[in-house]
């Protein structure tokens, strides 16, 4: 590879030029940098080895600069990063790949996106359970300071909340073991986490009150919040004191919020506050002449100003309500609403008022979604991964099949991703097997269109009957026309299918136009509410919307049918959603927990299959299998027929 070294002529520049040429040739021949350096070390002095290493660095640098640069769409880039993080790819691998293929500005975006995702993503229930068990193992084998260090190393706000709960439980146990105030103040000084510091200081105060020894928090902690004395030292009450005294009361939080708004030249008056399972809601009245637009996008400023005082890690949602504006402050000790806690399925169902579960509102009140209402009939919904959309869908199906017999409710399900509805196959409520591709979904929707027409023909046979409600009011319970709920998961894939999208769109538009009156309800869901895929005419025919957390503000606008409503991007995931009809409600969806408690889930499915059905259902005479066979028959006999794409 190298020319013989000869220092007698003293021409170092010629030697360097020869070495440069030799290195370039070696790189072209496929030698690695390490192999080239080894050759140089064997043949040349140290000064030339250093020069060779410099040349190699310059060649690599030039190669990187000369590579083609691809400008990625930032939304696409964020989605790819998010999916990679969820799949378990570590940050170094992601950054290495992006450094190779992205521009410098995009690389910086990737770094910030990774930080945002790690901080805000909603971990799976399995991951939360795993983290909890890890923390329990730490405190059972190590001092509590080790738990503090572990929590400080966690970025994700939801996993940190689990740690805070474990800290509270263990501080309470230490409180009962008669540890002195100095022990807890020392713990506070050992932690860099302000929440843990406050937990330790509050526990020290409880000890001081119990022992009658004074404690100056200005010496041992930040002392910025005055405490109320606990009136009792009963175990449960004391535990609640430790957990709750570290935060402001809702009244104090409301006053602090109003004062902060004043700093932004926004005049407002505190009205009231409510504690919900997912968030706390503070309602204020804006001053005369103050536009809502001034507070609409103030969420990030509040994180910066009130992050520590209110425990804000993400921007709160800001909404207009009658008589004021509300700020939804995420709860650090978030609660989930479990399906099994809200239903016993005792008594006879109301066959005239078929509904599905909505969720729990900020007052803790259960809200149902009445499919029989003219303000609902059909529902458009969507949201990103881990938003809670699938749980909402499963809760709706499980409730319908367990509450109502097949003579009252029938189901038509489409699940092209094949992960959500498979557990419901074989139920007597199904009009057909769960559709798992675009073709079978098109068949199912065409069947429902024909069923709809037959129902309207039935109405025409009777005087003054135009809707299913009027029909059942006259003939039930002797004869009931069952409502059909068609639930389609991930419509984006269906409406992107080149072979069947036109047929599916046509059937959907027919159903959305008039199927509600015939008792056929379409619930359409997607992770990607692309305005270029889901036709505006289709979107406009959904009177009800359910928006789960979205990645992009424009996704929120599409789902909610309002170009200015970006609120879904501020939702907290895992079942936190907006339900829109004539007004917008923020609800926590019910969690089915079919993976955590499979026995309960299977029990309800078994009861649904074996439940007593005392009613006689009206039948159109349309058999699904025969109908599909006729579709294929038309296609084979007439190439120009309606379904010639088959």
TrEMBL record:
Molecular function in Gene Ontology: ATP binding; DNA binding
Keywords linked to the UniProt accession: ATP-binding, Cell cycle, Cell division, DNA-binding, Nucleotide-binding
UniProt-listed Gene3D superfamilies: 3.30.980.40, P-loop containing nucleotide triphosphate hydrolases (3.40.50.300)
GO biological process: cell division
Keyword field contains Transcription: no
Similarity-based family: Belongs to the FtsK/SpoIIIE/SftA family.
The protein's name in its UniProt record: Cell division protein FtsK
Organism annotation: Nostoc cycadae WK-1
């Amino acid at each position: 590879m190298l020319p013989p070294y000869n220092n007698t002529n003293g021409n170092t520049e010629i030697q360097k030029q020869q070495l440069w040429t030799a290195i370039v040739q070696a790189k072209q021949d496929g030698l690695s940098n390490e192999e080239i350096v080894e050759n140089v070390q064997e043949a040349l002095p140290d000064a030339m080895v250093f020069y060779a290493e410099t040349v190699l660095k310059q060649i690599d640098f030039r190669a990187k600069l000369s590579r083609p640069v691809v400008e990625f769409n930032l939304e696409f880039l964020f989605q790819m990063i998010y999916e990679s993080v969820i799949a378990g790819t570590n940050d170094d691998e992601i950054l290495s790949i992006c450094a190779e293929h992205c521009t410098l500005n995009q690389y910086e975006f990737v770094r910030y996106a990774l930080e945002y995702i790690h901080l805000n993503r909603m971990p799976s229930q399995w991951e939360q359970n795993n983290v909890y068990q890890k923390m329990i193992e730490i405190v059972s084998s190590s001092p509590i300071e080790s738990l503090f260090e572990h929590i400080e190393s966690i970025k994700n706000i939801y996993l940190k909340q689990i740690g805070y709960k474990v800290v509270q439980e263990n501080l309470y146990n230490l409180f009962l073991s008669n540890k002195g105030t100095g022990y807890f103040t020392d713990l506070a000084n050992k932690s860099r986490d302000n929440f843990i510091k406050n937990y330790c200081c509050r526990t020290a105060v409880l000890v001081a009150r119990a022992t009658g020894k004074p404690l100056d928090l200005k010496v041992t902690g930040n002392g910025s919040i005055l405490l109320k004395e606990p009136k009792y030292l009963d175990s449960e009450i004391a535990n609640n004191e430790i957990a709750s005294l570290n935060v402001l009361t809702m009244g104090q939080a409301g006053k602090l919020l109003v004062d902060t708004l004043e700093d932004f030249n926004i005049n407002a008056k505190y009205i009231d506050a409510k504690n919900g399972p997912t968030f706390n809601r503070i309602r204020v009245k804006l001053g005369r002449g103050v536009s809502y637009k001034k507070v609409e996008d103030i969420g990030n400023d509040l994180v910066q100003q009130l992050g520590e005082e209110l425990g804000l890690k993400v921007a709160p949602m800001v909404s207009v309500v009658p008589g004021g504006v509300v700020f939804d402050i995420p709860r650090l000790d978030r609660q989930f609403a479990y399906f099994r806690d809200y239903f016993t399925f005792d008594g006879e169902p109301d066959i005239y008022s078929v509904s599905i579960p909505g969720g729990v509102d900020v007052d803790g009140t259960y809200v149902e979604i009445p499919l029989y209402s003219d303000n609902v009939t059909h529902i458009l919904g969507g949201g990103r991964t881990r938003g809670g959309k699938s749980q909402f869908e499963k809760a709706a199906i499980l409730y319908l099949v367990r509450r109502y017999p097949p003579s009252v409710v029938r189901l038509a399900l489409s699940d092209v991703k094949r992960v959500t509805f498979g557990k419901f196959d074989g139920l007597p409520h199904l009009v057909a097997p769960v559709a798992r591709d675009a073709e079978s979904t098109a068949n199912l929707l065409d069947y429902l269109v024909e069923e709809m027409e037959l129902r309207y023909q039935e109405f025409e046979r009777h005087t003054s009957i135009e809707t299913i409600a009027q029909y059942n009011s006259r003939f039930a319970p002797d004869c009931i026309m069952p409502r059909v709920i068609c639930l389609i998961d991930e419509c984006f894939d269906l409406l992107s299918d080149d072979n069947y999208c036109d047929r599916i769109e046509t059937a959907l538009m027919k159903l959305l136009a008039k199927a509600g009156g015939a008792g056929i309800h379409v619930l359409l869901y997607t992770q990607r509410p692309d305005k270029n895929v889901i036709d505006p005419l289709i979107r406009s025919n959904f009177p009800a919307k359910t928006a789960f957390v979205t990645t992009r503000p424009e996704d929120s606008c599409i789902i909610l049918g309002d170009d200015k409503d970006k609120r879904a991007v501020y939702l907290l995931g895992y079942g936190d959603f907006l339900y829109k009809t004539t007004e917008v409600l923020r609800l926590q969806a019910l969690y089915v927990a079919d993976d955590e408690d499979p026995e309960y889930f299977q029990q309800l499915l078994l009861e649904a299959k074996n439940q007593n059905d005392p009613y006689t259902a009206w039948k159109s005479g349309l058999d699904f299998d025969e109908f599909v066979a006729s579709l294929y028959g038309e296609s084979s006999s007439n190439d120009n027929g309606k379904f010639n794409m088959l």
